[in-house]
Amino acid sequence: MKKFNKLAFVISLLVAGCTNEHRHDVYNESASLINVSEIGFNPLEGNMIATFISAHDTTMSTLYGNNAAAHHAAHQAPYTDGDILSLVTWKQREDPYWFGGNIPGYVALIEIVRFESDGPVYSIHADELPESHDTEKRIKFMTGIQRSEFP
Q1: For strand 59-65 and strand 47-54, is the pairing parallel, antiparallel, or unpaired?
Q2: How far apart are CA 151 and CA 139, in angstroms?
Q3: Cα separation, 52 vs 73, whole angstroms
Q4: DSSP-derived 3-state class of residue 97
Q5: Which of 29, 44, 70, 146 sits most deeply, having the most CB atoms within 10 A of its CB?
Q6: Contact assessment for residue 33 and residue 43, using Cβ atoms and an 8 Å cutoff
Q7: What is the 3-state secondary structure (H, E, C) of 12-27?
Q8: Which residues contact 80 (CB under 8 A, 6 or more apart)?
Q9: What angle do CA 34, 38, 41 make, to 5 degrees?
Q10: Which residues pair with 92 in a beta bridge?
Q11: Phi, psi dihedral angles at 99 (to 5 degrees)
Q12: What 3-state DSSP class applies to 55?
């Protein structure tokens, strides 16, 4: 009887392992789909400076910077020529693996501030522009974000 139980167990493992069901998006690849040719670089490859969530808008955002911008953010120094900040905002979606959790869905908005000798240059990349959009306010907001503390 013990041999039969062991054999049944092994067969059930084999059958369970040979299923053709597709797994969920384990790596959440949809959250990294960005039209890089439109922007000129991939902001997700930058250094993470800060991250935050807007429960009201059901979005989550991460502020990225190139090496120089990340260095200035870490030392709370003003941004200078050549610094690039990118604020990537995702719409949230439910996490299929964690009940009650949310993860990034699709990229809803990418805002970029490039620091040049004439001052900061702002650009926005989105399918739909926000209703109220003030360029100066957005530059102030992005440059005023405090760097997250990392352990």
Answers
A1: antiparallel
A2: 28
A3: 16
A4: coil
A5: 70
A6: no
A7: HHHHHHCCCCCCCCCC
A8: 68, 72, 115
A9: 70
A10: 104
A11: -60, 130
A12: coil
pLDDT value of position 77: 93
Burial readout 125-148 (b: 16 or more C-beta within 10 A, e: otherwise)? beeeeeeeeeeeebbeebbebebe
- Which run of H or of E encompasses 125? strand 119-126
Could you report the per-residue pLDDT of 92-137, keeping only the tens digit for each? 989 888 888 888 989 999 999 999 999 999 999 887 776 777 899 9
DSSP-based three-state secondary structure for 58:
coil
Q: DSSP character for 81? A: T
For the chain, the farthest-separated pair of C-alpha atoms sits apart, in whole angstroms, at 83
pLDDT of 126: 85
For the stretch 20-38, pLDDT in tens is 555 555 677 777 788 887 8
Q: Which helix (H) or strand (E) holds 69?
A: helix 67-74
| pLDDT value for 8 | 62
The confidence score (pLDDT) of residue 5 equals: 60
Output the CA angle 61-146-121, nearest 5 degrees.
70
The token pair that represents 9 in the structure block: 């167990």
